[in-house]
């Protein structure tokens, strides 16, 4: 990346990148300070940490995990980058691979839920900026962790926070968890 050679701070909030793109971002971290996250909101990134901690604490098989997200009717990708960020956090807490344990569509006669999977439910409508919930469902009890974005400026504030944090760092590939001191 030519921009990495400029040795300036790069804040990347783009989702849906290929594995090849991700490797290029990481390689650029050899020369520049790169902060990348599927969501720049400080609250969403905290929710990711709480999700990882909760899934680790509750164990791998006795609690079902569902990630519910809603966005405006014009959003074109599903699940959203934020839902995937939360899914990866839950998978990390369980010590599993999200790609192998993810259930993204349920329609018709699906049979019983497979133990250990992480489900995704996607809703689209109106002008919703972003609502995300991680539902941990156990026998006789349920825990819901959630975040609601009611103003798009939260993403800009998070990006500015990341840029200011990274300006005094050595070149490297960082996440919002580094910015929050939670990595």
Structure description:
This protein is an alpha/beta fold and 183 residues long. The chain is built from seven helices and eight strands. The strands form two sheets. Strands 4-5-3-6-7 form a five-stranded mixed beta sheet. A three-stranded parallel beta sheet has the order 1-2-8, sandwiched between helices. It is globular and about 55 Å long. The relative contact order is 0.23. The mean pLDDT is 93.
Topology of this protein?
Elements: H1 2-5, E1 9-12, H2 19-28, E2 33-36, H3 42-58, E3 64-71, H4 81-94, H5 98-101, E4 102-103, E5 118-124, E6 130-138, E7 141-149, H6 153-166, E8 172-174, H7 176-179
Parallel strand pairs: 1-2, 2-8, 3-5, 4-5
Antiparallel strand pairs: 3-6, 6-7
Helix pairs in contact: 3-4
Notable traits:
alpha/beta, five-stranded mixed beta sheet
Mean pLDDT score, rounded? 93
Instruction: Tell me about the largest β-sheet.
Output: 5 strands, mixed
Percentage of residues in DSSP E strands: 25-35%
**In one word, what is the shape?**
globular
* Terminal Cα span: 26 Å
Radius of gyration: 17 Å
- Helicity level, as a percent range? 25-40%
- The total count of helices amounts to 7
Structural class call reads: alpha/beta
Strand order of the largest sheet: 4-5-3-6-7
**SSE order in H/E notation?**
HEHEHEHHEEEEHEH
Number of E-state strands: 8
Indicate the low-confidence ranges by residue numbers: none
């Amino acid at each position: 990346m030519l921009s990495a050679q400029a040795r300036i701070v790069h804040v990347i909030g783009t989702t849906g990148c290929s594995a090849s793109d991700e490797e290029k971002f990481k390689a650029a971290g050899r020369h520049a300070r790169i902060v990348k996250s599927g969501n720049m909101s400080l609250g969403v990134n905290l929710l990711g940490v709480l999700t990882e901690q909760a899934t680790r604490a509750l164990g791998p098989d006795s609690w079902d995990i569902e990630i519910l997200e809603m966005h405006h009717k014009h959003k074109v990708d599903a699940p959203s980058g934020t839902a995937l960020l939360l899914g990866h956090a839950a998978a990390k807490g369980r010590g599993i691979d999200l790609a192998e344990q993810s259930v993204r569509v349920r329609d018709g006669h699906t049979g019983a839920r497979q133990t250990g999977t992480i489900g995704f439910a996607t809703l689209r409508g109106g002008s919703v900026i972003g609502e995300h919930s991680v539902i941990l469902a156990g026998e006789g009890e349920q825990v819901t962790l959630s975040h609601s974005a009611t103003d798009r400026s939260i993403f800009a504030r998070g990006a500015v926070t990341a840029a200011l944090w990274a300006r005094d760092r050595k070149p490297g590939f960082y996440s919002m968890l580094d910015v929050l001191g939670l990595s």
